[in-house]
Amino acid sequence: MSTPVMDEPILELDDLVTSYRLTRGIGRSGGEVRAVAGVSLTVRAGETVGLVGESGCGKSTVARTIVGLVRPSSGRVLFEGRDLSTLPAQEMRLLRQDIQLIFQDPYASLNPRMTVAALLKEPWRIHRGLVPRERWDEEVRSLLDRVGLRAEHADRYPHQFSGGQRQRIAIARALAVRPRLIVCDESVSALDVSVRAQILNLLKDLQRDLGVAYLFISHDLGVVRHICDRVAVMYLGKIVEVGSKDSVYRHPSHPYTQALLSAAPSLDDWRDDERREIVLGGDVPSPLSPPSGCRFRTRCWQAQDRCREEEPALIERDTDHPVACHFPAPS
Amino acid sequence: MTGVLLQVDDLAVEFDTPKGPLRAVRGVSFQVGEGETLAIVGESGSGKSVTAHTLMGLVPLRARIVSGRVTIEGRDVTGLSDKEWRELRGERIAMIFQDPLSALNPSLTVGYQIAEMFRRHRRLGRKESRRLAVGLMEQVGIPDAERRLDDHPHRFSGGMRQRVMIAIALALDPRLLIADEPTTALDVTVQAQILRLLRQRQRADRLGMIIISHDLGVVARAADRVAVMYAGRIVETGTVAEVYERPAHPYTLGLMRAVPTPRDGGAPLEAIDGQPPDLLAPPDGCAFHPRCPFARDKCREVDPEQHELGPRRASACHFAEEVMTGVHTGHG
Amino acid sequence: MTAVRTTPGRSGGPAPVLRRLAALPLRAHLAIGTVLVFAVAGLLGPLIKPYDSARTSPPDRLLPPGARLSDGAVAWLGTDQVGQDILAEVLAGMRTSLTVALVTVLVGGSVGLFLGLVAGYFGGWADGIISRVGDIQLAFPSLLLAILLAGVLGPSMVNVIIALAVTRWVIFARVVRGSAIAVRDREFVDSARVMGASHGRILLHYILPSCLPPLLVAATVQVGLTMVAEASLSFLGLGVPSSQASWGSTIAEGRDYLASAWWIAAVPGAALALVVVSIGILGDLLRDTSDPMTEL
């Protein structure tokens, strides 16, 4: 794998919109849910970008759109400057090598009928010429070694492994096609704490050695802070704040980011029993009928009339990073 | 500590499997006092959930209590009949679960399910039960309670469903509340709401509470005392401050270091090597020794007893003092 | 609770298979035995005891079971109205019945498998067309449709198979479509898509293996039901030509002699009932014992 040039954008999302059509009963359309309602985001070669949000905010749909499992309704997904939606099918399949996805549940994402060796070799059957057949066994051993598994694991089936080991297999399978970008969709959320740490370390090592970029999607702010260089916060289909890890975590400007950070439990919470935590009221509104203006205003303690009428754009406002709020906390 | 609500002595639970007995809980002892929140923390397979269910008289299928005694408010409940358990549950001891949707009956309205507690246990009339149900829903922070009474569970969000579960659990003023991963299925902001609610109710009613969790952050926020479980044993107990500031068991120490913190600056985490043991054939000596950086010959041979380190503070490690001081000097 | 399994969970070799067979309930052993006996009889019987539809033997007409024939042989199951040995007729009928049922299930099953896979995996308009055609056909009694087709096509074994296969494919297509839909959106299939796998590869390596166990169960049950359908057509004179033996036509012939020579209709009737019930038990057994791993 060639050493990537840092700072060169490899993935650009340009006003991406992805909708799901709802059906209610036979033939009747129940309207459209805009799960992703206009997201722009850049991932540069070799960096890790975190996409944080709660369930239903559309972060998983972003992942599925990038890897081509769902089609965007509008907007563009650019990989190394090429628009994925306009590529011919043949080129698109080649490009699939460059972007890989690691799922949340390693119990569901590996074909239970295939041995580890078969799982790792399958990508080479699909993309012929990637690895010559006589080097397959050797390459399987080296992949297993790279993700911390032993060579004799190759002949076992997924159900013979623990959750952490299965996630290692999934990572090895993703690496088999030598991707430039790996989308991790809650990839460590189902793992126990001690095993999660092993996988996070592994992901970091791989990035250092192979220069792969990550789009790391998670609800866990602590994990994102640990692994990411830059962070984007999503709420109800939109990015509300984006910036370097330090600027977002040290100076959260959007009220939602502030609330998320305050709500996230940490090891130090016992020190300060009556913490001045911001506890948001209510629940996330339905994406079927999002609020007018700012989507967060129904739960925001600072909301004013302007928030109802005008949707805030994601721009820098006396802050060192872009934020989509009319009244952001200054950095 | 004022009155002891729950006393567990040397509880052991085994599952019958085709490959022989699986020792899920291997001799667990602890107490919960009035107005006290104990967190039982551990990873999957540690036996924390089996312990909690056993306390409620809900011994899982194909499991049996091998030994031990459970006393609730001074009454030995180990050999209670189903009928006696039904009277105890709800009245003296209640439980909330990780997934409120599967714990609620989908075909009955929420109001009916709350009011049912009063009708069945208190023999109150329909009107009176409904009135009490509305009051309870308001207490647990369900807005517009009067109107939402007749909605079915699927009309509620995850957080609101968990509030309904809490209302049902607290309906009959139990003394002890067991919460099994109560916020694991919830979003961060909703989790904060529910943890705050539990704390408020627990303080107001001087409830004894047990929170089962895998999340050290949730435990830090919600509990007074903590018991860390590993491979069916409690390996360390103490107040949250004692345990979090100076862990006295290598496993606790490992867990703490495996959690990313703002201070780690993205440096590699100190993960615990290896995998939890196979409970069908636990290792000789200390169950943690194959993964333990402190392990020596003694650990491979002798299963450690609980070492008292202070009042209600103990560690099941041969080298507990060393672990504690090791943390202090930053060595380990 | 998840315990880590480190030993291989697969038990191979013939010994475990035998042990699993031995652990089956008695009715399973009876069913397997019956089906085996009938299959062997159908295969080898006509070679040992040949049946010739053109042959008649007036002195041996309507003899009861166990009677001695004019040529000295014993007719263990009696003779019919033209002096044919019922045993030979039943054995030859078994062969017809088995051939028609197996080929029908093979043809109908293949068509159903293909259309079910297409409908279940691709969905959309392909699913719409296939499912609606299937629904329309199911709204029509299947035997009536078979009678109509067999009547139009005329009596021959191939035509019987065509008529029956046309009535059966829907059942297979539905089973396969259901399994395909269940597995289509599983994460490990998504994972293959992300890898760039073609539709053909996903269908062959991911969808098909999950559809086979339920298809096998359905096929087993359908073998029995197809035997009944074949007998029904032959009973009505719309089945195989009269030069070939069939349980249905034998029963039809025996209808006129129910009072005097009951064995003509009763023997093939009993044979049909026995084999169909046995196959039904086998089908249930397959359903119950399908390895949970193979359902993934």
TrEMBL record, chain A:
The keyword ATP-binding applies. It comes from the Bacteria. InterPro entries: AAA+_ATPase, ABC_transp_ATP-bind, ABC_transporter-like_ATP-bd, ABC_transporter-like_CS, Oligopep_ABC_C, P-loop_NTPase. GO terms for biological process: peptide transport; transmembrane transport. Keywords: ATP-binding, Nucleotide-binding, Transport. GO terms for molecular function: ATP binding; ATP hydrolysis activity. It holds the Pfam family ABC_tran. The keyword Cell division does not apply. Residues 11-261 form the ABC transporter domain. Belongs to the ABC transporter superfamily. This is ABC transporter ATP-binding protein. It comes from Nonomuraea glycinis.
TrEMBL record, chain B:
One of its GO terms (cellular component) is plasma membrane. Signal peptide: none annotated. It is found in: Cell membrane. CDD domains: ABC_NikE_OppD_transporters. GO terms for biological process: peptide transport. Residues 6-256 form the ABC transporter domain. It is a peripheral membrane protein. The keyword Cell membrane applies. GO terms for molecular function: ATP binding; ATP hydrolysis activity. Keywords: ATP-binding, Cell membrane, Membrane, Nucleotide-binding, Transport. SUPFAM superfamilies: P-loop containing nucleoside triphosphate hydrolases. Its main location: membrane. It comes from the Bacteria. Pfam families: ABC_tran (PF00005), oligo_HPY (PF08352). Belongs to the ABC transporter superfamily. PANTHER family: DIPEPTIDE TRANSPORT ATP-BINDING PROTEIN DPPD (PTHR43297:SF2), OLIGOPEPTIDE TRANSPORT ATP-BINDING PROTEIN APPD (PTHR43297). This is ABC transporter ATP-binding protein.
TrEMBL record, chain C:
One of its GO terms (biological process) is transmembrane transport. Keywords: Cell membrane, Membrane, Transmembrane, Transmembrane helix, Transport. This is Peptide ABC transporter permease. PROSITE patterns: ABC_TM1. Its main location: membrane. It is a multi-pass membrane protein. The keyword Transport applies. Belongs to the binding-protein-dependent transport system permease family. It comes from the Bacteria. GO terms for cellular component: plasma membrane. PANTHER family: ABC TRANSPORTER PERMEASE PROTEIN, OLIGOPEPTIDE TRANSPORT SYSTEM PERMEASE PROTEIN APPC. The chain crosses the membrane at residues 28-48, 100-123, 143-167, 260-283. Residues 94-283 form the ABC transmembrane type-1 domain.
